[in-house]
């Protein structure tokens, strides 16, 4: 019994040793075979690279080798190529296009047949037989590049086409879902209503930032399918198509009304922002005014005031209550002039802004040019004549009833000693020398201006849009098809003005416009009436319009123009100004000035 147990223990121990040693033995044998296979594979790869290097070096010293296959080798290569074609066609379909035509050439009495292959096949052949060369190196390289380009174009062409079908379908489904939701009874809290609300919320989030199908994530596509399933349920609950049509028509009408209201509100806000004074500009006015009243009366005097009445000099006038606008007009005019010492600039403002503008030009004199700053109170006789009439005009826009806006019709009285003057609006920038205006032949006319009577252009204006041609008084004196022109940069012959007594004619038209509706508010229709048939049309390169309300003005015309006019409400000193035109204005402002920095006025 003891011997049996002893042999039993020996047998169990031997089995245990066998189970431990057998796997170790098998792993060691398999590892040797694996190492030998890897060494063979590494040797084959290294030999391919070395052979390729030898071939390139040999080609650099000698001509390219021409290898001619015998019939047996050619057959094997053809079979290899055919098998590769089949594999590639199964893998890529029609993407890798293979030319099956062959070319034959006679070299030394033997026939060599180069086959045009895909880029993938060429790489496989180079791994197997690196020395094989059928044509010259340049020809083979050209064929390889051509095949590669064709392969890449075919691979990329489907990717470049972007569609938005799924995005548009999701938006349409959202409209349908909202229509179904609105058709549910008020206060309904059914399972379908809850599901519709959930699907609408999910789909709106998914499609909010998507412009094309590629922007949709997998979760967005899943939500799209979920919404379609919910819509299918809703169509069975609400099968009445006429009710759906009525609901969609009502939704369309409401959407149009909302768009119209939003447009009206946007227009109102733009107009409102155009009439308000920016906080920085108000701050600048306060600081300059405080500095001005800190000066003694002698220190407030501007230099060279004896030249302001010299009729032989070039006189430019601007009527404004905006200190930055006046600074740009003055700086741009002087910097663009060939002879700035001949320039005299006249600024007329109201009594509130006289200290502000005076202090600015005391701190920033205009170089060799002369500047004169006057207030409206300096023309007491004129103020009594037209202030009462302007207050009777029915307009809520201060620009139309402003005394500074209508002061242009009293130029001979404001500058009694001058014969000619150029009047600027305060929203202009001068880019070129304007001395040529003073030698212009006025042909007995009073005002020189650029025309605005070319249809199809942003600056186009028609007289019947501003003047009431249904009134007999207007019909007798004016032609509705007469060419219109623009204020902003105008040359005036003050001698001819005085001879024709046009200021009195303006006052007559102003009074008539108060008693009956003859023209719209503002100075432009009154100007057309006052200077009717007394206008000489200037070349359009003198004056470029539309930079304050039309973003489509070409930059080529802007660069060539002598004067740029930011007419409209989007002035360059406001945040709503058109960005691509602001630089022409802002380059004439020194934003490093301490007062501008303190008032947070930046470019």
Automatic annotation (TrEMBL):
The keyword Glycoprotein applies. It comes from the Eukaryota. It is an enzyme of class 2 (transferase). Residues 87-102, 117-127 have a biased composition (Basic and acidic residues). GO terms for cellular component: Golgi membrane. GO terms for biological process: cell wall organization. It is a single-pass type II membrane protein. This is Hexosyltransferase.
């Amino acid at each position: 019994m003891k011997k049996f147990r002893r042999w039993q223990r020996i047998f169990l121990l031997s089995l245990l040793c066998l189970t431990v040693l057998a796997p170790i033995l098998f792993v060691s044998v398999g590892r040797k075979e694996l190492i030998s296979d890897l060494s063979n594979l590494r040797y084959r790869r290294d030999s391919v690279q070395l052979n390729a290097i030898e071939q390139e070096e040999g080609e650099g010293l000698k001509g390219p080798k021409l290898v001619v296959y015998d019939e047996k080798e050619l057959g094997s290569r053809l079979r290899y190529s055919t098998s590769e074609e089949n594999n590639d066609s199964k893998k890529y379909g029609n993407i890798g296009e293979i030319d099956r035509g062959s070319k034959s050439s006679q070299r030394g009495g033997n026939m060599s047949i180069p086959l045009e292959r895909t880029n993938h096949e060429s790489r496989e052949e180079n791994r197997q037989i690196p020395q094989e060369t059928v044509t010259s190196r340049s020809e083979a390289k050209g064929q390889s590049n051509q095949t590669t380009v064709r392969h890449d174009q075919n691979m990329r062409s489907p990717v470049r086409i972007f569609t938005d079908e799924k995005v548009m379908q999701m938006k349409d489904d959202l409209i349908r879902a909202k229509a179904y939701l609105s058709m549910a009874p008020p206060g309904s809290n059914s399972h379908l209503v809850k599901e519709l609300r959930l699907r609408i919320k999910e789909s709106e989030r998914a499609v909010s930032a998507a412009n094309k199908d590629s922007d949709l994530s997998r979760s967005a596509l899943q939500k799209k399918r979920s919404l379609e399933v919910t819509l299918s349920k809703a169509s069975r609950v609400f099968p009445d198509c006429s009710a759906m049509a009525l609901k969609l028509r009502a939704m369309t009408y409401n959407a149009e009304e909302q768009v119209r209201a939003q447009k009206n509100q946007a227009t109102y806000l733009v107009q409102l922002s155009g009439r308000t004074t920016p906080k920085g500009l108000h701050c600048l006015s306060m600081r300059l005014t405080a500095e001005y009243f800190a000066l003694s009366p002698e220190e407030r005097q501007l230099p060279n005031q004896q030249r302001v009445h010299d009729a032989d000099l070039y006189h430019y006038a601007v009527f404004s209550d905006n200190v930055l606008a006046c600074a740009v007009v003055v700086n741009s005019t002087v910097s663009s002039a060939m002879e700035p010492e001949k320039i005299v600039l006249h600024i007329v403002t109201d009594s509130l802004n006289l200290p502000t503008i005076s202090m600015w030009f005391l701190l920033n004199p205009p170089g060799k040019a002369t500047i004169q700053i006057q207030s409206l109170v300096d023309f007491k006789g004129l103020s009594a004549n037209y202030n009462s009439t302007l207050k009777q005009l029915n307009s809520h826009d201060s620009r139309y009833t402003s005394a500074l806006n209508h002061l242009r019709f009293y130029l001979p009285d404001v500058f009694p000693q001058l014969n000619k003057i150029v009047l600027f609006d305060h929203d202009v920038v001068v880019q070129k020398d304007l001395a040529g205006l003073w030698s212009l032949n006025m042909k007995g006319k009073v005002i020189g201006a650029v025309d605005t009577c070319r249809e199809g252009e942003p600056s186009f204006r028609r007289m019947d849009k501003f003047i009431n041609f249904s009134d007999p008084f207007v019909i007798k004196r004016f032609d509705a098809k007469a060419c219109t022109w623009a204020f902003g940069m105008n040359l005036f012959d003050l001698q001819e003005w005085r001879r024709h007594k046009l200021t009195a004619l303006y006052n007559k038209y102003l009074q008539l416009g108060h008693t009956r509706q003859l023209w719209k508010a503002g100075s432009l229709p009154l100007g057309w009436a006052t200077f009717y048939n007394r206008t000489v049309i200037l070349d359009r390169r003198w004056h470029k319009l539309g930079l304050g309300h039309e973003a489509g003005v070409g930059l080529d015309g802007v660069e060539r123009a002598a004067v740029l006019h930011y007419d409209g409400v989007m002035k360059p000193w406001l945040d709503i100004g058109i960005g691509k035109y602001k630089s022409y204005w802002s380059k004439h402002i020194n934003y490093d000035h301490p007062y501008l920095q303190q008032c947070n006025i930046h470019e």
